[in-house]
C-alpha cells in the first residue's frame, strides 16, 4: 500500500523484499565487476558516497561537473545492461505509485559506509522531469531528508529501511533532498553498507 509523502511522491514500505534474494545476487556480482567509486565534486572534493551505474547512461561527477555518461570513467567501458529483475521491479513500483510505462535507461548505485551522507540537492541532470525516479533502499537503515522546491524550505525526515521503495514524481520530482550521516548498524545481507538504487529515465 503506497503512502503519499509529498505531492507525487509515494513510499512503498518493503516493496522490494520479495525479490531481494535475486536482486542482491545480481547487485553483488555487479559491484565486484564495476566497483563503486567516490566521484569528484566540481569543487574538487571527493563525495562521501561511492557510486556505480547500470544501463545506457551512468551518472558521473568530476571537476568538469555532473552528468550522464555512456562509459564508466574508471574503465572507459560501457555500463552493463540493467538486469531484468531490476527493470521489472522499477516498472512495477512506478505503476503502483500511478506512473504507468516507466522504463529506466539508467540505474545509479549509491554505496554508503558508516559516516557517509548526501547533502541537500535537486536531481536536475535528466532530460524529462515528467518522468519519475524510483529509489530502492538496501542494507543499513538511513534517515532521508525531504524538503521543497527551495533549499531553505523545511525538511521532513523519513526512516528508510531495507527493502523500501520510494517513487518520486510530479511536483516532488524537483524537491531538495538528502541523506543524514549513516550510522553503523550492520545488516545481515550487506554488512556495514547501505546501498541505494535510483532508477531513472536520463535521456
Ligand atoms: C526526491 N540518492 O542519488 S534516493 C541521488 O539515498 C539521491 O542515495 C539518495 O538523492 C540516496 O540523487 C536518495 C531518493 C531520491 C532520489 C531522487 C529524488 C529522492 C528524490 C529526486 C527528486 C526528489
Ligand atoms: Fe538525489
Automatic annotation (TrEMBL):
Binds 1 Fe(2+) ion per subunit. The keyword Ion transport does not apply. It comes from the Bacteria. InterPro entries: Alkb, AlkB-like, AlkB-like_sf, Oxoglu/Fe-dep_dioxygenase_dom. GO terms for biological process: methylation; oxidative RNA demethylation. GO terms for molecular function: broad specificity oxidative DNA demethylase activity; ferrous iron binding; methyltransferase activity; oxidative RNA demethylase activity. It is an enzyme of class 1 (oxidoreductase). SUPFAM superfamilies: Clavaminate synthase-like (SSF51197). Substrate binds at residues 59, 66-68, 125, 151. Keywords: Dioxygenase, Iron, Metal-binding, Methyltransferase, Oxidoreductase, Transferase. Its EC number is 1.14.11.33. GO terms for cellular component: cytoplasm. Residues 103-203 form the Fe2OG dioxygenase domain. Pfam families: 2OG-FeII_Oxy_2 (PF13532). Fe cation binds at residues 121, 123, 177. 2-oxoglutarate binds at residues 110-112, 194-200. Its cofactor is Fe(2+). NCBIfam families: PRK15401.1. PANTHER family: ALKYLATED DNA REPAIR PROTEIN ALKB-RELATED, NUCLEIC ACID DIOXYGENASE ALKBH1. This is DNA oxidative demethylase AlkB. It comes from Methylophilus medardicus.
Amino acid at each position: 500500500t503506497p503512502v503519499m509523502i509529498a505531492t507525487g511522491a509515494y513510499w512503498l514500505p518493503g516493496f522490494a523484499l520479495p525479490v531481494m534474494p535475486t536482486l542482491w545476487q545480481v547487485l553483488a556480482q555487479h559491484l565486484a565487476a564495476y566497483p563503486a567509486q567516490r566521484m569528484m565534486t566540481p569543487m574538487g572534493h571527493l563525495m562521501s558516497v561511492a557510486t556505480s551505474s547500470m544501463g545506457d547512461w551512468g551518472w558521473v561527477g568530476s571537476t568538469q561537473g555532473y552528468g550522464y555518461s555512456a562509459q564508466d570513467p574508471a574503465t572507459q567501458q560501457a555500463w552493463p545492461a540493467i538486469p531484468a529483475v531490476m527493470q521489472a521491479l522499477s516498472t512495477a513500483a512506478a505503476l503502483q505509485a500511478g506512473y504507468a510505462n516507466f522504463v529506466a535507461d539508467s540505474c545509479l548505485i549509491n554505496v554508503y559506509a558508516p559516516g557517509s551522507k548526501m547533502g541537500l540537492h535537486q536531481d536536475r541532470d535528466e532530460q524529462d522531469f515528467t518522468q519519475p525516479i524510483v529509489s530502492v533502499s538496501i542494507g543499513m537503515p538511513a534517515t532521508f531528508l525531504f524538503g521543497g522546491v527551495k533549499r531553505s524550505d523545511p525538511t521532513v525526515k523519513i526512516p528508510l529501511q531495507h527493502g523500501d521503495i520510494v517513487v518520486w514524481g510530479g511536483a516532488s520530482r524537483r524537491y531538495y533532498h538528502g541523506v543524514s550521516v549513516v550510522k553503523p548498524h550492520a545488516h545481515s545481507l550487506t554488512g556495514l553498507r547501505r546501498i541505494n538504487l535510483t532508477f531513472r529515465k536520463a535521456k
